[in-house]
Model the fold of this input.
Amino acid sequence: MSNLVEINFDGIVGPSHNYAGLSLGNLASAKHGGSVSYPRAAALQGLGKMRHNMGLGLTQGLLCPLPRPNHGLLAALGLGQPADETERRLRAAAWSASSMWSANAATVSPAPDTADGRCHLTAANLVTMPHRAQEWPDTVRQLRLAFADTTHFAVHDAVPACFGDEGAANHMRMGTSHAAPGLEIFVYGRTGGAFPARQHEQASRAVARLHGLDPARCLFVEQSPDAIAAGAFHNDVVAVANERVLFTHEQAFADPEGTYAAIRTALPGAEIVVVPASAVSLADAVASYLFNAQLLTLPTGEMALVIPLEAWEHPAVRAWLDGMLASNGPIRRVLPVDVRQSMANGGGPACLRLRIVADPATIDPRFLLSDARADALEKVITDHWPQQINPGEIGSDALARMVISARAALLEALDLGELA
Ligand code: SUG
Done:
């Protein structure tokens, strides 16, 4: 008997976490570029969120940081000592801990949605940003280890780089329950605005084909150009879905009414919670990351929204949330978490996790968290992660040695030497 549940696989924040201002169109990344980062605190915050969600009775997974600095990338670019700011940024790309945002690792179609009854994952090519484009080959390696059971999983390489794909951050799945066949909603952007549209329609369509999805249960929806211009570089900055509920900003989609109607037709009983711009402006949504939340079904059946503290502390957002909780809506609990170090790079609670509906027994147990493994992780992070990184240290041999040995200690603690 298979026991399909939603498992959130959080990316562990890597020891080279830093603020290099690398992501055009991501306002937090631009704002904090050049600031001092605190990798140890960042990783402990991420672990705190994992423990928090595990404490709610949910199954929690983990993904390991990728090898940094990426010497292969530095060599491929012919980079030695940077001669100018452009070269400094390229070098910083090879040090980025950006794989922590595992919502961008892959797009996932659970078994009930696919033609062959397996859960399909396609790694995201992340081609729009150089520091992210290096991730996918190592991501695929890790996914093929975690989901090695090919009777239950198919892990695809990234789609060709001519079509930008940013993974689950631009993909939502709705249905009557996680285990039931779902409606898969792919959200893409159109190029031409002030900021890059990272998700291309043809990438989304390729993923849907690769996964063997039923076209009758797929929607391809254009993201609002206004949302991208306001700093919503991924759809998950302005919308999140879970089972029959879509929680969205009124300006998330280019054609909101058409999108809601298509969802209601495909999923009778869908509940769409729309936050109007008059209550929370797009700017406030992006600044607070209200929608970059984990919308979770708790074991009690209640739905909870795990939001960043920044949203909870934002007056307009808080007023809206208080009103929502006082009403009789489908989201019954709001749970703030502290992931400030990640937030300062534009990564909220939802960015830090990849959702996979699967039977935990079919997954390599080394990628599932328990209290004992969380304790082991905490010790490794506390003992090995740099306390802080000044931007000027990026490139230093001493820091490189520390980052490499910290990751090695982590892999050893998790018995994941294959990823070394
Ligand atoms: O790709 N930030 C990430 C944040 C990703 C958020 N993910 C989701 N929305 N799902 C990005 O823009 C900043 C790195 C830097 O500037 O150092 C960065 O890559």
Summary: The pocket of N~2~-(3-carboxypropanoyl)-L-arginine is lined by residues 19-23, 26, 29, 33, 96, 98, 101, 103-104, 129, 132, 169, 233-234, 236-237, 345-347, 351 (CB under 6 Å).
